[in-house]
Amino acid sequence: MQRLQKVLAAAGVASRRKAEEYIAEGRVTVNGQVITQMGFQVSPEDEILVDGQPIRREEKVYFLLNKPKRTLSAVSDDRERRTVVDFLQGVDARVFPVGRLDYDTTGLLILTNDGEFANKMMHPSSHLPKTYEVTLEGIITENMVKMMERGIMLDDGRTLPAEVYVTQQSVKKNRTVLLITIFEGRNRQVRRMMEYFHCEVKALNRIGYGFLEIGNLQPGQYRRLRMYEVRKLMQMADDQSAAAENSRR
User: Fold this and answer.
1) How many Å apart are CA 249 and CA 244, to the nearest integer?
2) What backbone phi and psi angles, to 5 degrees, belong to 149?
3) Measured on CA atoms in the order 132, 181, 158, 186, is the torsion positive or negative?
């Protein structure tokens, strides 16, 4: 169940505030009944008319994209650079990315037209794990790993404890490859964490989000998320939010 004005806004009838005006003016009916009550709850099965015309409800869709390098996490670009939605050929829904990956960062990105889902995924309290494979110019020591596992101080505050595993290292080549899982959505967080140790990121690839993995998707390929995956992500976000709330008490 959702509030009527929210459904009208999601259907593109009007902004939520304007939709409330339509309701107050008696221009909206639900199953043949004029509704003037704000916050009236409707289901997907209800027939909703505005000025006697049925609204067009857009089906909620969810996609997992393997974002290629040199691609904007945006719907459009005034400089005509390639954006993530350009890869969803044949998708009629007005999708947008859930969060963002930097222009040169690759990997797992979710796109949807469900604003409620996107907001829940991006809310600071959700603490959904995000795993990256990072290739660095520089050597990450055991002490540095322990520091990241405890949290390090960046210019916007101390990071939450991360999970860090060094998978390859060459002192001769001055090169480190590591897996890092963070539980926040700060801007450029992984890159800034590496800069803290004076290591330059040569490649950054997100391979995990929540319980999702990039799998066999090649750069530019995408697949539709299954509804059980969407529900599981939302449950994970709810559980993390509840845990964060309990820890503050």
Assistant:
1) 9
2) -70, -25
3) positive
Euclidean distance between CA atoms 233 and 249, whole angstroms: 25
pLDDT 10s digits, 180-238: 999 998 999 999 999 999 999 999 999 999 999 999 999 999 999 999 999 999 999 99
51, 77, 86, 102: the active-site residue: 102
- The structure tokens listed for 173 are 């080549």
Is 102 tagged catalytic?
yes
233-240, long-range: CB within 8 Å, 24+ apart, which pairs? 233/117, 233/121, 233/128, 234/117, 234/120, 236/126, 236/128, 236/210, 236/211, 237/120, 237/121, 237/123, 237/126, 237/128, 238/120, 240/125, 240/126, 240/127, 240/128
Q: What are the pLDDT digits (tens) for 141-158? A: 999 999 999 999 999 999
Residue of 175, 202, 222 lying closest to 104 (CA atoms): 202
Q: Write down the mean pLDDT value for the chain.
A: 93
- The two tokens of residue 128 are 């959904």
Sketch out the chain's domains with CATH numbers.
2-54 (3.10.290.10), 62-124+213-225+232-248 (3.30.70.580), 130-209 (3.30.70.1560)
pLDDT of 6 > 70? The answer is yes
The whole-number pLDDT of residue 114 equals 87
